[in-house]
Write a structure and sequence with these properties.
Two copies of one chain form a homodimer. Chain A has 204 residues and is mostly helical. In chain A, 68% of the residues lie in helices and 0% in strands. In chain A, helix 1 crosses helix 2, helix 1 crosses helix 4 and helix 9 packs antiparallel against helix 10. The longest helix of chain A is centred in the first third of the chain and has 24 residues. Chain A binds a DNA duplex (30 and 30 nucleotides) through helix 1 and helix 3.
Chain lengths: 204, 204
DNA sequence: GCGCATAATTGCACAATGGGCAACGATTTG
DNA sequence: CAAATCGTTGCCCATTGTGCAATTATGCGC
């Protein structure tokens, strides 16, 4: 179905390798502990090629840190949903499927990195914006014409807004797959999600 | 009340002058039609000083393009709101007050710029994120303890999400203060806002 | 008003970056 | 198989970011 040409797969592979190298180096030495030259040496590509794929090392690091996997499984699951499911239902299910402990771990790492290096934030936000656009197109396709224009924008925006403060650490929740925190009064991600969708479903 | 020291006002003045120069140059020659050197020459500062205030010219341009004015008037208006106003009411009123034709014109300009130069987008998003945080703190202070944690995050996130597609052009609405478009089937900003807040108030 | 602490501006130097251009090689197309 | 397409690379150079130290302007206690 989604068949990419050999050429495109290779291109993606180099981008992936470069991003991964950048991410590993960021973990090992910190964001300013390495330069693009180090990245391309590790991945065995040229500096020029790096510039063809990424604007800067920050972009590469974020790209690697936020790579989703299991997208196709999730889409298969979503396809199984009942015919009368609402956009809200689909979004809820999608969040439950995609926001795994592993993804949260990645995001946590990225967050703590971006707290020490504010240079990262714009690129994190930019990547999230791209994901948001993709989700929107998917929803628009699923529910084409069934809701007035702007409905999905608002809905996804709300969900995006609900997730963002967790990502950037301004709202502390107990993430799935984490050890139980020393402060047991923080709400769990699932509770937070349920409550949030409650507001969206029934109004504020 | 908000009295800044002379030193701080001067600092802000240089930042403003630099940002303004950058913005003007971007309008005149396009984003890649000038370099930082040009900016500091026009504003009569040194290249080093520019670097003290901004990470790059993109940041400066966005800063200038999105400067809000009339914030204090808006706050005065909000203070007059009835005691039993909900966060939703306050946000609605604030949007009506702040999102003037002038601000929209600025944002439009910035959007068309960022479509030709994707480098801008991360910095636009970053600035918006900062505004979002500020709005959130303001709301949290106003309604301290009256709503569960995450309530304002979700609410402001939704509003943010509703505005964003207008900013970035993926949702076309008739902005206040614009000529009537040649395509009369686009919804007006006020209608869009009312409908959106309807969803938020009554549920999706 | 007089100094001292604080902090902004500046110049300098240098490593790092971004990107145009042309060449080369792998992949795709017909 | 030949031609076209496109990713990778090297070369080059203007531009950028930043640490450091000197200079200048402001804030504050006296």
């Amino acid at each position: 179905m989604n068949k990419l040409s050999l050429r495109d797969r290779k291109k993606e592979a180099t981008a992936h390798a470069l991003a991964e190298s950048a991410y590993q180096l960021a973990l090992e030495r910190g964001l300013d502990g390495f330069v693009v030259e180090d990245v391309v040496q590790r991945a065995e590509y040229s500096r020029r090629t790096f510039a063809n794929h990424f604007a800067c090392k920050e972009e590469a690091v974020v790209m690697a840190a936020m790579s989703f996997d299991g997208v196709e499984e999730a889409e298969a699951e979503l396809a199984k949903m009942p015919e009368n499911a609402t956009p809200l239902d689909v979004l809820y299910r999608w969040l439950k499927l995609q926001f795994t402990a592993d993804l949260f771990r990645k995001m946590r790492t990225l967050v703590s990195m971006s707290q020490q290096h504010p240079t990262l934030e714009p690129y994190i936000l930019s990547l999230f914006r791209r994901l948001q656009r993709e989700a929107q197109e998917a929803l628009n396709e699923l529910f084409a014409g069934r809701h007035p224009e702007g409905y999905t924008h608002l809905l996804i925006g709300a969900v995006y807004g609900a997730i963002l403060p967790i990502i950037d650490g301004s709202l502390q929740v107990q993430l799935p797959g984490d050890q139980v925190d020393e402060t047991p009064d923080v709400v769990s991600f699932d509770q937070y999600l349920d409550r949030s969708f409650g507001y969206l479903r029934d109004g504020f």
